[in-house]
Design a protein that fits this description.
By secondary structure, this protein is mainly α. Helices cover about 65% and strands about 0% of the residues.
């Protein structure tokens, strides 16, 4: 090879030129470096390919043509014999070594010829198997002695650049739709079962947005609501004990449950201050001679109607939970146990499972919300409570009092409505007054307990986030990957939403508070939905740091 380089500064006869061109035509696919001067340098990137018979063929063919083109008009030297003995020989050897050369072409990042139509697993699988079987582990198309393609190899094969916005290939439409139906519709079906107070269209929409846009505050508020209910239960039991009801008698649990639901109903109407007055009036009424005949039935009938009005949706929620969690687990096991082929890409399916895992907290949130329940109509609780007050002749009603009616409640502002009622306790998943110390002290809830509620909500959401991260981490190639970015971004949006919620709760009041939180939750929910849609579309269907199947 060195001798040929030294003697290549000569011209040769036209008779050998077609032979040289034939050799050169094949070898140029390997070299693709027509302007380089030295092919024998120790640090040349193709030195490994230029050794042996196939390497000599390429060097001879390339050098011969370049020499002819560059010094065609120089004085002819005595090199015809050398050419005959080498070029003709190499031309003969070319056919012997052609299969070896064809395989060698695909085992270097500089000479690989294979191309796909973008980032397509269907085309990757046969190509990956071919390169895996024909190229050595030390080839520069593989990542550090492994069998994973490097990012450069992937980009060259797919023809994709390194742009964040353009270097990706959308999934087929049928695959996008299948994954949405399989993974996302059960999730939205479960969210659709979330109980919402019927306080107007804007409040119902705000309930859904708050759950999807701020799960940390939603879970915290529901835990606070359960604690407030427990406080009312303790107060109701204390009233029963004060009234002298035997704790072992059937009357004791029946009475405290009825008293508790009446007090909780006052809380939901924004009239928590009347709870203590209600308990005092009940104790006074028990001393009245007509209590058993006329007064007790009023309490019992009102409490039973309030309990019947409270909607829980136990069966629909149980079915939705089963579809979501059961389908998620079955699909995860199925994807993890399947082998990749041109029509089945378990890596992508597991990533879809991981994104659904981000919303596993929804399952627990919906269950807690169903335990609490909501009224079926906006006017049910005020109507029943006002009716109870009217029919308690010895305590609440007056001879000149008007009969219960919607008009009288509006005229006397008996109960706040709409946004104001939502702010003052009408929504179990949103308690904007939770940071007001005086409000918490009324229910015996300490600051430490509030920290515990926030911690429990954080654990629930972080567990879902960790599930998604771990699943994506162990999908080959194992380790941190670009798919962790949208998952982490969604979690970060929830953290920011909760931070803004705490700020709004302490700084804003009234309708400004409601609409500020509404806007914040809308942006957070839409942002997360947009991330899910974009990833389902295929923005992560691109080359990464390395590729393996």
């Amino acid at each position: 090879m060195a001798k040929w380089t030294e003697e290549s500064n000569c011209t040769y006869g036209q008779a050998l030129l077609p032979v040289v061109h034939d050799v050169y035509g094949l070898c140029l696919r390997v070299l693709k470096l027509s302007g380089e001067a030295s092919y024998n340098a120790p640090d040349h990137p193709l030195r490994g390919l230029l050794l042996g018979d196939s390497g000599r063929i390429c060097v001879a063919g390339h050098a011969a043509v370049q020499t002819y083109l560059q010094i065609e008009h120089r004085e002819k030297a005595n090199c015809d014999i050398y050419l005959s003995a080498n070029i003709l020989l190499t031309y003969t050897e070319l056919h012997m070594h052609a299969p070896q050369m064809e395989a060698t072409l695909d085992c270097s990042i500089l000479t690989i010829r294979n191309r796909t139509n973008g980032f397509s697993f269907g085309e990757f699988i046969p190509l990956y198997k071919y390169l895996h079987d024909t190229c050595p582990r030390e080839s520069d198309i593989f990542f550090q002695g492994t069998r994973m393609w490097t990012d450069s190899t992937c980009r060259k094969i797919t023809g994709l650049g390194d742009s964040i916005w353009r270097a990706w290939t959308p999934y087929p439409i049928e695959d996008i739709w299948t994954r949405i139906v399989t993974w996302k519709l059960p999730l939205f079906q479960l969210v659709g079962q979330f109980p919402r107070a019927p306080l107007g269209l804007s409040v119902e929409i705000a309930t859904y947005l708050h759950v999807m846009g701020d799960p940390l505050d939603s879970i915290t508020s529901m835990l606070l609501t359960l604690s407030m209910c427990r406080s009312r239960v303790e107060l109701a039991k204390y009233v029963c004990q004060t009234a002298g009801i035997d704790e072992t008698s059937p009357e004791f649990p029946q009475t405290w449950k009825r008293l508790a639901i009446i007090m909780v109903s006052y809380d939901e109407c924004g009239k928590s201050d009347e709870a203590l007055g209600f308990c005092g009036a009940y104790l006074q009424n028990r001393e009245h001679p007509r209590f058993e005949d006329d007064i007790r039935p009023v309490y019992e009938e009102s409490a039973d109607c309030l309990a019947a009005d409270r909607q829980t949706k136990t069966l629909p929620v149980a079915l939705a939970e089963s579809f979501f969690i059961g389908g998620w687990v079955i699909a995860l096991v199925k994807a993890a146990s399947s082998e990749p082929n041109p029509t089945n890409w378990p890596n992508i399916e597991i990533h879809s499972v991981a994104f659904s895992g981000l919303y596993l907290w929804v399952a627990s949130a919906v269950v807690v919300a169903c335990f609490i329940g909501v009224s079926q109509t906006e006017t049910s609780i005020p109507r029943l409570l006002q009716g109870m007050e009217y029919h308690l002749p010895e305590t609440r009603a007056r001879p000149e009092a008007r009969r219960p009616s919607l008009a009288s409640r509006k005229e006397t502002s008996w109960c706040v409505t709409g946004h104001e009622r939502a702010i003052k306790g009408g929504l179990n998943s949103w308690r904007p007054n939770k940071w007001v110390k005086r409000q918490r002290q009324e229910f015996g809830i300490s600051t430490l307990a509030m920290v515990g509620f926030v911690g429990a909500a954080m654990i629930t959401v972080v567990t879902s986030y960790a599930t998604a991260i771990i699943l994506s981490y162990y999908v080959p190639p194992q380790g941190p990957d670009c798919r962790h970015i949208p998952e982490s971004l969604m979690f970060l949006i929830w953290l920011m939403s909760f931070t803004l919620e705490c700020l709004f709760d302490q700084k804003l009041k009234g309708k400004l508070l409601f609409w500020s939180v509404f806007t914040k939750d809308l942006l957070a929910a839409l942002s997360n939905i947009a991330i899910v849609v974009i990833t389902q579309w295929g923005v992560m269907n691109r080359c990464g740091k390395n590729v393996s199947l």
